[in-house]
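Q: what does this look like with 2'-deoxycytidine-5'-monophosphate bound?
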Amino acid sequence: MQNIVIAIDGYSGCGKSSTAKAVARKLGYTYIDSGAMYRAATFHFLNQKVDLNNTEEVVKQLKKIHISFKKNPQTGKQETFLNGENVEEAIRSMEVSNFVSEVSKIKAVREDLVSHQQQLGKAKGVVMDGRDIGTVVFPKAELKVFMTADLEIRAKRRQKELQDSGKEVTLEEIIRNLSERDKIDSTRAESPLLRASDAVEVDTSFLGFEEQVDRIVDLANERIGRYTKAYGSNH
Ligand code: DC
């Protein structure tokens, strides 16, 4: 079978990460959460009180950031590490969520993280989710998916996720954060959130979780079959 790259892009809170994780599990692929990398960089900049307008300072601080992913042996879940410290919980805070789009606008940050993401996906057999995976990180990905969902439905899902991890945030605050991030992510000069022309759109507003996972797994299996037929097996 040929290993392929699956790029999943879309608006904030469409369920990209949970869907991408489940797709990777079903295919035996590696899941890479590119948003976690932007969040980890944001967490570092907040802690170091970095002036985002000072490019020299941003570049200097970027050199001090080492982001990695490790599976938690107890839960089996992948967690994000910043310079060896587990920041999986910390990077999901509202403080980071409110600041991350500003950090993601910076060219130097994007260049640094995109090159790291390309390195992580070089061997293929990966599912990566984000905003520019099918357009910038892997423009030649064999399968590109663009996920969308109604804003209020997305906000309710995000509220439930936060509640499940013990955080109470009002629906209004979540709607404000999601729509603000959608706006900044879609209108920024550097790699804005765009649907790649060859991406398959999946609207998850009225799809059950299993349904959306199965749709993408079916698409992936069809592409894996097609590329294996054309190029033979690579594993
Ligand atoms: O997927 P997420 O919500 O955890 O991503 C957090 C932020 O990171 C999002 O608001 C925009 C930014 N991001 C990006 O600019 N490019 C990516 N490939 C992934 C995320």
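The mean pLDDT is 95. DSSP finds nine helices and eight strands in the chain.
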